[in-house]
Amino acid sequence: METVTLTIKNQPNLYLEADNITPDAFAGKKANEIADLYVYVGREQYRLGDFFEVSGNAGATPEETKIVVNGDLSRVKYIGMKMTGGEVVVNGNADMYVGAWMQGGKLTVNGNVDAFAGTGMKGGAIVINGNAGNYLGAAYRGDWRGMQGGKITVTGNAGSDLGTFMNGGEIVVGGDVDVHVATHAEGGKIIIKGNAKSRLGGQMVEGEIYVLGDIDVMMPGFAYREDVDVDMDGIKGRFALYEGDLGERHRKRKGQLIYAKLYQQIRA
Amino acid sequence: MAEYLIKNGFVFDPVLGIKGDVADIAIKDGKIVETSAVKNPKVVDASGKTVMAGGVDVHAHVAGPKVNIGRNFRPEDKLFTYKPKSGIERMQGGFSVPTTLRTGYNYARMGYTTVMEAAMPPLYARHTHEEMRDTPILDQGAYPVFGNNWFVLEYLKNHEIENTAAYIAWLLRATKGYAVKVVNPGGTEAWGWGLNCENVNDPVPYFDITPAQIVKGLIEANEYLGLPHSMHVHANNLGNPGNYTTTLDTFKLSEGIKPNSKFGRDQVMHHTHVQFHSYGGDNWGNMESKAKDIMDYVNSHDNITIDMGQVTLDETTTMTADGPFEHHLTELNHLKWANADVELETGSGVVPYVYSPSIKVCAIQWCIGLELGLLSKDPMRTFISTDHPNAGPFIRYPRVIKWLMSQEAREQQLDAFKHKDKVIDATNLAGIDREIDLYEIAQMTRAGPAKALGLAHMYGGLAPGLEGDVVVYDFNPNEPYAPDDIEKAFQNAEYLFKTGVQIINDREIVSNGNKRTLWVNAKVNENPQVMRDVKEKFLRYYTVTLNNYEVTGHYLSNPYVIEVDATQ
User: Fold this and answer.
1) Cα angle value B560/B535/B127 (rounded, 5°)
2) Distance (Å, rounded) from C-alpha B515 to C-alpha B92?
3) How many angstroms separate the CA of residue B122 from the nearest CA in chain A?
4) CB neighbours of B71 closer than 8 A, spacing ≥ 6?
5) How far, CA to CA in Å, does B355 sit from each of A34, B198, B277, B316, B362?
6) Hey, is B228 helix, strand or coil?
7) In the structure, what pLDDT confidence band is assigned to residue B553 with cuts at 50, 70 and 90?
8) B 58-87 near A (Cβ less than 8 A)
């Protein structure tokens, strides 16, 4: 695997739309060609090299390409957008849409990310060693096709509207989450190791939510069913199982309605 | 104005009866002229290419409040489709509900120069005209909807044709409308009660009238006035298995009525997006094509024209004044739904829809649309449309043309369907080997729609005196070609002239043209009763006054009035 290192040298006055920072766009290119890839600031087009020091050449394919981005990237959007393979490591805080519509490969952020990370994600893995903003693993505005596959892991906290319209894949949050979890979801799995506030599973059709900490307010559309034992991915214990959203449509399997499931750990 | 001479192209023109012969077309002062009339023209070399008149779209939803609801509630339709300003083109975006600018540019690229907005809620006519004003290049008109209007329901309950006609004349003038549109007659009004009208004899709640009375009465009022276009109907029961009987019942309402129009049309009813109205069976499992029954009727009745409403197998945005239908659709596909009620006049709904080749019903719908075109014995009465954006976006017209012109292209698509065998069983398409030729395409996309609109004196042909609307496609019908070559050529006109102004040069848009808005001013005898009714309804029921209703002044920047005298 070849490694390309980008180090930010000039901060943009507005925000930098850098959807070309992907193994797919870099593959087969030398450092100087990578520096020539376009980025947008507002409606003005610039070169990637106008903002970043570029060193190292990319591999022949996305799978053989690793990108390391260093510095304060809190004004840089769309890092790893639509990537299909290879690896991206971000050392610093990044702005919105990190790994949006990602299809494969691995994306690691050693820092915090702003909203819409993993929007519409189809595959691959995102690891955020820090906090995530709102709309993590959600759908694009208006779209009903949210996260379809892959895995997002956040070691810190996540904001509101986590996993909106989620259809598949998995999101694990090490810390706490804000309001609105898995709204409109029709599949997938969300694990919250810390506390949740309210509105979990609103209009949720199918899928699973696990909460290991407290839930401030349970949705009235979720009904308690029974206590169950859970032993999964290192999570072990007794959980209260709720089903919902009772106000939403649900498909039937073998005559039985299938609900979304919400598990909350019971602490002794 | 500049003079142009388009030389040596293969010309296809139903008006002059030219079927691909090499000919020269001259343009001067905005009109087509004899080639001897141009002295020092700019010469366009069209040798080896196809030359036609500018395309005319009889039915598309391209401007107005429900189109804008579609734009507003589908940001995902614009995702990754934005194109920054370049040259004369301003920034544009959107796929199934494009911005006004993209609408103008993309129609021009396909060689279309006239596009009719198919459903204008009168109360929001100002908005509709604002959007048309912002749509460059194209000549446009808009059809106000009448089929659920309280005035119309009350007059026609007692068969008051003269009053209905006076009201139509008043509303066309107030909204600067072009024709009488009817959508799910009575059904959208019934939707206010949570009901619908599913056949032509279903009573409309409260008003005590049936869809049959509404349709027949509006045809009679339309002919009383002698409007350029006929009554333009989207019948009851759209999109339901077994609905072809409702469609035939609706067709029959035109029987025995002759056109009364000095504008040269032969029909008294235009039935739109007939694909959605040609279903047999009684559920989605046994739904089948009844295109043959439908076309047997259309072929043997000269006073009807239709457009196809071809499904293009895309993700799109459905939108119609048929409010109950959109509710039905959102219950089927569980996607987001917008609904609007327009006071005394109409309603509407909007729902995204994905026509997937893996879904049997979508594949059957695709077959039915093409069957309508291929079973037509008179291409002058059968027009290409996708009911944009309902069955697919208008930018797919070139693909529809490809399917009509090439059996090979149809077979490729049939083979790609997941449920191919079931689809073939439920339709007639696999057994049809007809390939429509370019002359017939010119009938279905130019001469036919222009004539049906009562605009044959302006559009649809290349005879001297007609508007200088001419397109050159990079397509040589005398050389061997692959089906996709048809689509590519019709997607990207090489040259385009609109009212004598060059819009496209070498596939690049070079002018925003001089867009006009067509409307019909029908003069009728003074009718104090109707004027009193209008005044009273505005006082009692409308949320606006008459002064805030009429389309005047800056809402109408470049109007083109068609005068009709119905005083008797």
Assistant:
1) 40
2) 18
3) 29
4) B77, B78, B94, B97, B99
5) 39, 24, 17, 8, 6
6) coil
7) confident
8) 73-77, 79, 84
Q: ∠ CA B203-B147-B149 to the nearest 5 degrees?
A: 95
- Going by their DSSP bridges, the two strands B338-342 and B346-354 should be labelled as antiparallel
Instruction: Kindly state whether B354 is in contact with chain A, defined as any CB-CB distance less than 8 angstroms.
Output: no
CATH for the stretch B53-452: 3.20.20
Q: Do B76 and A143 touch (CB under 8 A)?
A: yes
Ranges assigned E (strand) in A138-234: 151-154, 170-173, 186-192, 196-198, 206-211, 215-217, 223-232
The per-residue pLDDT for range A11-45, each reduced to its tens digit, is 999 999 999 999 999 999 999 999 999 999 998 99
What is the CB neighbour count within 10 angstroms for residue B340?
A: 17
Helix pair angle (B407-416, B360-374), 10° resolution: 170
| Interface residue A143 vs chain B (CB under 8 A) | yes
A144 vs B: CB within 8 A: yes
Q: Which residues contact B301 (CB under 8 A, 6 or more apart)?
A: B251, B254, B255
DSSP letter string, B263-301: T----SEEE--GGGG-EESSSTTT-EE-HHHHHHHHHT-
Half-sphere exposure of B266 (CA within 13 A, CB side): 12
Q: Are B75 and A43 in contact (CB < 8 Å)? A: no
Q: Which helix (H) or strand (E) holds B57?
A: strand B55-60
Instruction: Tell me the average pLDDT of chain B.
Output: 97
Calculate helix-pair angle for B407-416, B397-405, nearest 10 degrees.
110
Can you tell me the distance from the alpha carbon of A106 to that of A108, in angstroms, rounded to the nearest whole number?
7
Strand A106-110 to A151-154 pairing: unpaired
CATH architecture for the domain at B4-52+459-509: Roll (2.30)
| Element containing residue B114 per DSSP (H, E) | strand B112-120
Supply angle C-alpha A43, A45, A49, rounded to 5: 140
A140 in contact with chain B, both atoms CB, cutoff 8 A: yes
- Measure the CA–CA gap between B384 and A172, rounded to whole angstroms: 52
Can you say how many angstroms the Cα of residue B534 is from the centroid of all Cα atoms in its chain?
29
CB-based contacts of B167, cutoff 8 Å, min separation 6: B151, B152, B155, B530, B533, B534
Mean pLDDT over each residue of chain A, to the nearest integer: 97
CB of B348 closer than 8 Å to CB of B65: yes
In chain B, what are the domain boundaries?
Answer: 4-52+459-509, 53-452
Does B334 lie at the interface with A, CB-CB under 8 angstroms?
A: yes
pLDDT per residue as tens digits for the range B357-401: 999 999 999 999 999 999 999 999 999 999 999 999 999 999 999
Q: What residues have CB less than 8 Å from B361, skipping those under 6 apart? A: B284, B287
Residue A268 has pLDDT above 80, yes or no: no
CB pairs under 8 A between A and B: 19
| Chain B residues in contact with A42 (beta carbon < 8 A) | none
Q: Which chain B residue has the Cα nearest residue A82?
A: B80
- Written as six digits, the tokens of A59 are 């591999």
